[in-house]
Amino acid sequence: MSYYTHLECCECGRTHPTDRWLGVCSCGRSLFARYDLPRIRAEVRRESLMHRPPTMWRYREFMPLGRDEPVVTLGEGYTPLVPLGTVGPAGGLHRLFLKDEGRNPTGVFKARGASVGVSKARSLGVRRLIVPTVGSGGSAWAAYGARAGLEVAVTMPVSDAPMIARKDCVATGARVILIDGTTTDLFRMSQRAADRYGWTPIIALREPFRVEGKKTMGFELAEQFGWELPDVVLYPTGGGVGLIGMWKAFEELQAVGWIGSKRPRLVAVQAAGCAPVVRAFDAGADACEPWERMDTVVPGVKVAKAFADRLILKAIRATGGAAVAIEDAETLATQRRLALEEGLYISPEGAMTVAAGFRLRDGGAIKAHETIVAFNTAAGMRYPHLVRDDLPVVRAGDEIVLAESPRSDRVAPATG
Ligand SMILES: *Cc1c(COP(=O)(O)O)cnc(C)c1O
C-alpha cells in the first residue's frame, strides 16, 4: 500500500505510471511524484511522527515507495538546527539557525536524494547508474549504490573534482572516470555513454526521485519549528533541487492540513563567479542564460544553467524571496568565523548562505528578529584544501612554545 499514485510533468501536466523508471516527460521536462494527499489528510496525523526514528524516512507517507519496497538507508536526514548565537547577533540577526546538513552520511546532503533514488532504482530493477557530478553527488550515489549492490559509475571534471569526492567514490567501489573538458562536455559525454551501454543517467531533475529526498528538508523545517515555517530560507543553489523540493514539500504539507499558507521567503545564494540564477533574477527573466566562465572555490554551485531554472525562479518570486551572489573572499572569511566563533567547521556553500543573510540584513530585506535558516549543505571536512595551515614542528626533547595566539586577542574576555 502506498499513497504514491503517479508521475506528473511540471510543464505539460501529462501523467505517467509508477511501475517503471522514467527520467523525464515525453515533452522533455521534469517529472514530479504525486500522492493521494486527500487520503493522507484523512488517515495520517502529524502527531504520529513523534515516535518514529529521527531520519528523513519518518515522512514515509510522502515518499514514492510502497510498504513492500525496502528502503536503502544510512540514517540520512533529520539534521539539527543549530542556533548561531554569537555570529548571528553580531551581524544583526537574532534568530539565525544553521540547518547542518553536513551531519548526513558521506558528509553531504546529497545523501537524501541518493537514498530515495537508489531505493527506487533497486525496486524497479535498474542495476547500473552513471552519475555525472561536479560537487559531491558522486560520493552519495556511490555509497548508497554500494549498500544496495548496484553498479555505479561517477564521471567528474579532471580539473576541479574535489579530492575527497574522488577518494570516497573509489572507496565505496564506484568506477570513477575523470573528464578532461567543461561541465557541458561532462554531461554530454555521460549521457552518450548511458545511451550506448544502457546505463541509467542520474542528473538533477532529469529523474524524479532525488527531489523527493531533498524535499524532506522542508518537512523537517516545518516539524522542527513546531509546524510554523521560518521567515527566510537561505539556500546555496546549483541545480536548485533543494529549493524546488522544499517548495513542493510546503505545498504538500498545506494540502494535508499540517501547515497554513505562510511560506518562507526562499533565497537562492550563488557564488559571484557562477551566478546564473542571480543574473536572471535581477534581469526579471524567466530562465537563465548559461554562465560562461565559472570561477569559484564553491563546487556545489558550479552549474552553468540549471535544467529546472524556470522552477527555481518561480519559487523565489512566488515567495517574495531573492537571489544573492557572494564573492569567494567573503565566503571564506565567513567560513573561518563560524569555525572560530561557533565551533562549526562548515562547507563554503554553507558559509556563503550565512554571508547572504548578513548582506540582506544590511540592505534591509531581513529584519533583526525574523527567523532565518541558512543551509549548510556539507561538512567542512570535505574541503581540506581551503584551510591554510603553516604548522611548527618541534623536535623530540625541545620545548613547545605556547605564544599568545591570534585567537585569544579576538575573543573578548567574559565580563560580569
Ligand atoms: C549539490 C550541492 C549543492 C546544490 O544543490 P542543489 O539542490 O542542486 O541546488 C549545494 N551544496 C553542496 C555541498 C552540494 O553538493
What does this structure look like?
With 416 residues, the protein is an alpha/beta fold. It has a domain at 81-108 and 212-386: Rossmann fold (3-Layer(aba) Sandwich). It is 34% helix and 15% strand. It has 14 helices and 13 strands. The chain has helices at 37-43, 87-90, 110-123, 137-148, 163-171, 183-197, 210-214, 216-224, 241-255, 276-283, 309-318, 328-342, 348-362, 406-410, and strands at residues 4-9, 15-16, 31-35, 81-83, 95-100, 128-132, 151-157, 175-179, 200-201, 232-236, 265-271, 322-326, 371-376. Strand 7, helix 5 and strand 8 (175-179) form a beta-alpha-beta unit. Helix 4 runs parallel beside helix 5 (163-171), helix 8 crosses helix 9 (241-255) and helix 9 crosses helix 11. The protein binds pyridoxal-5'-phosphate. Pyridoxal-5'-phosphate is lined by residues 108, 110, 135-137, 204, 236-242, 300, 347, 349, 377-378. Residues 108, 110, 135-137, 204, 236-242, 300, 347, 349, 377-378 line the site of pyridoxal-5'-phosphate.
Through-space gap between termini: 61 Å
Overall CATH class of the domain at 81-108 and 212-386 = Alpha Beta
Shape: globular
CATH topology of the domain at 81-108 and 212-386: the name is: Rossmann fold
How big a fraction of the residues is strand? Answer: 15-25%
Helix content: 25-40%
Order of adjacent strands in the largest pleated sheet: 4-5-13-10-11-12
Q: How many helical stretches?
A: 14
Structural class: alpha/beta
Please count the beta strands (DSSP E, at least 2 residues each). 13
Order of secondary-structure elements = EEEHEHEHEHEHEHEHHEHEHHEHHEH
The CATH architecture of the domain at 81-108 and 212-386: 3-Layer(aba) Sandwich
Characterize the largest beta sheet: strand count, sense, and whether it forms a barrel: 6 strands, mixed
Q: Give the cofactors and ligands.
A: pyridoxal-5'-phosphate
Rounded radius of gyration (Å): 21 Å
Low-pLDDT residue intervals, each spanning 5 or more residues? none
Average pLDDT rating? 95
